[in-house]
Amino acid sequence: MWAYIVRRVVATIPVMAIVALFVFSLLYLAPGDPAAVIAGDQATPEDVERIRASLGLDRPFLVRFGEWAFRIVQGDLGVSIFTNLPVVTMIKQRVEPTLSLMVVTLCLALSIAIPMGVIAAWKQGTTIDRIVMGVAVLGFSVPVFVVGYLLAYTFALELDWLPVQGYTPLSEGIPYWLENLILPAVALGGVYIALIARITRASMLEVLSQDYVRTARAKGAGQTSILFVHALKNAAVPIVTVVGIGFAGLIGGAVVTESVFAIPGLGRLTVDAILRRDYPVIQGVVLLFSFVYVIVNLAIDILYTVFDPRIRY
Amino acid sequence: MTEPLLSVENLQTHFRTPDGVNRAVDGITFHVNAGETVAIVGESGCGKSVTSMSILRLIPEPPGKIAGAIKFEGRDLLKLSDKEMRKIRGNSISMIFQEPMTSLNPVLTVGRQIGETLRLHQGMSASDAEKKAIEMLELVGIPEPGRRVKEYPHQLSGGMRQRVMIAIALACNPKLLIADEPTTALDVTIQAQILDLMRDLKRRVGAAIVLITHDLGVVAEVAERVIVMYAGRKVEEAPVGKLFANPRHPYTRGLLGSVPKLGSSLTGHEERLAEIPGLVPSLKKKIDGCVFAGRCAEATDLCRAVAPALETKGPEHVAACHYALKEAAAA
C-alpha cells in the first residue's frame, strides 16, 4: 500500500513537468506582446525592445523555460508585472476563499447527490426516481451564473436570509464563513450534484441486482444497511471516478462563481491576471490548479483500493 | 402428531411479465418437520428455487406475487410485516445459495459478513461477533480461521466460499436451513466435502434442511423425504428409499433413468442414457390437463384433459398421475 502511494507520488513528477512546459509555452505562443502592453501607446520601438530585454523575453525559449522551472522548484513563482508583488504572496492572499468554496461545494454535493442517486436507484421507475432524475437534468442544464443570480436574488435580496455577496474569512467564525459560502456552493455545485447523482444511480442499479445483495437480504439486513453498506461500497469506484473528473469542472466553475458572488479568490485573481496579461500570475495560478488536479487524481487512485480490496497495483 | 416446523400450503408465486403471467410456482403444498431433511428436486425452471425464495419472501414484489400460506412455527410468514420478516431471515430461517462465487459481498471481509447476522440478531458487539466468526470458520473446516476472517471473498476458493456461506447461515443456530443447490457450482470432490459438512453440522445444530437440487445423487446421500416438482407443481412425494425403489410418477422415473451410471460404457453393457424428450412447458399458459402430459410416453386423452390430483399411492407416498399404481396393485 505505502509502496504504491510512494510510486504514484513519484509518478506525478513527470506529469507536473509536462504541465509546466504547456503552461509556459501556452503564454509564449499566445498573441499579444507583454512588452508592448507594458510600454504603453506612446512608446517607441526602442522602448519596447528595452523592456523586452529587461524581462528576458528576447532569449531562447528553452533557456527561459529552464530558468523559470528552476525557480518554481524553489518555490519562487516570480513577480507580478502589474503589482510588483511576488506571485506566491498574491496566491496566498487569495487561496482561502477558493479553497473554502471548493470544500463546501464538495461536501454539499456529496451529501446531496449520493443519497439522491441511491434513493433513485432503490425506487427505480417510480415517481420519486423520475423527480430525482428530473432535478438532476435541471441542475445539468442551467449554467452557474444563471443559478447564481437567481439564488442571490431569491435568498439574499427578496428573503434576506443570506448575504448577497462577499466573503468572510474562516478566522471570524464558522457560521459567518459558511453564511457567505452557501449560495455560491449551491450555484457551483448544481452541475456537480447532477453528475454524481446520475452516476450513483446507474452504478447502484447494477449492484442492486447482484447475488450478494440477495444474500444480505436473506441475512435479515435492513434496507438502509443493504443500500448504504452492502451496495454503495460496491458501487463506489465509478462514483469516485466521476467525483474526481467533476472536480476539474469545479475549478473552472469557481472562476465564474467568484465573479458572480464577488468572492476575492483565485478565480478572480486569474481573470484579472488574464485581462492584464500578467504572465507570471497566470502561470502561477494555472500551475497551482493543475497541481491540485493531479493531487485529486492521486487521491482517487488511492481511494479505489480503499473501496475495492480486489484492486491492487 | 406434533405440528410441523414449516408447512407450505397452496403456495403460488406468480410473476407479472409484459407478455402474461408466469406461474413459476402454482399451488404447492408440503411440510418440513423439525430436524428433518427434505429435498425438492426437478429440472431447471420447475420452480424449486422460486419456492425456496418465496419461503423467505426474497422474491421482489412486484413483479412477483406470493399467495397461499407459509406457516413457520405456527405463524404465517406471508402475513408478517417487513420488520418481523427481517427478524426471521438469517436467524431462525437461513439460506445458502447456489453461486458461492457471487453470493458473498466482494468488498466486505469474511469476518464482517459472518458477524453481520450475529450483530443483527443477537446484538453482539463488533469484537464479539468477530470472535464468534472465527469459531464459525473453524466449525466449517476452514484452516487458519484467525487469518481468513480478515480476508475478502476473492482470496478464497469456491469451496471455501461455500463454507463461509454455510458459516453465515448457521451463525445464529437456525431452525430451518434452506440450501438452494449448494453444491452445483462446485467440483465433485468439493461437493462431497460440502455435503459431509452439511450432514455433520445438521447433527450438531439440529436444524431442519430444505435442500433444493437437481442432483439425485445428492438426494440419495442426504435427504429423508423427497418432493418432485414439475412445472411449478408437486408431482410426487415420498420417503427417499421408496422414491428410488418405487417411483410412481412417469416424470420421477424419467429423472431416475437419466442419471448416468459410472463406467457403464466400459463394462460392455453400453446403454444409451435415457432422457426425457421435449422441454418444460411454458408457465405462462394455463394447462388444463396433467402438466407432464406433453412429454409423457404413457399420456392418454384423459391426461391431456383432466389434471390428476395428488393421490396417496402408499404409506407417505403421494403422486399426481392417473395411471400411477397403488402399492398393493404394484406388488
From TrEMBL, chain A:
Keywords: Cell membrane, Membrane, Transmembrane, Transmembrane helix, Transport. SUPFAM superfamilies: MetI-like (SSF161098). One of its GO terms (molecular function) is dipeptide transmembrane transporter activity. The keyword Transmembrane helix applies. Its main location: membrane. PROSITE patterns: ABC_TM1. The chain crosses the membrane at residues 9-30, 99-122, 134-156, 176-195, 235-261, 281-307. One of its GO terms (cellular component) is plasma membrane. InterPro entries: BPD_transp_1_N, MetI-like, MetI-like_sf. Belongs to the binding-protein-dependent transport system permease family. This is ABC transporter permease. It comes from Rhodovarius crocodyli.
Automatic annotation (TrEMBL), chain B:
GO terms for cellular component: plasma membrane. InterPro entries: AAA+_ATPase (IPR003593), ABC_Ni/Peptide_Import (IPR050388), ABC_transporter-like_ATP-bd (IPR003439), ABC_transporter-like_CS (IPR017871), Oligopep_ABC_C (IPR013563), P-loop_NTPase (IPR027417). Its main location: membrane. It is a peripheral membrane protein. The keyword Nucleotide-binding applies. One of its GO terms (biological process) is transmembrane transport. NCBIfam families: oligo_HPY. Belongs to the ABC transporter superfamily. This is ABC transporter ATP-binding protein. It comes from Rhodovarius crocodyli.
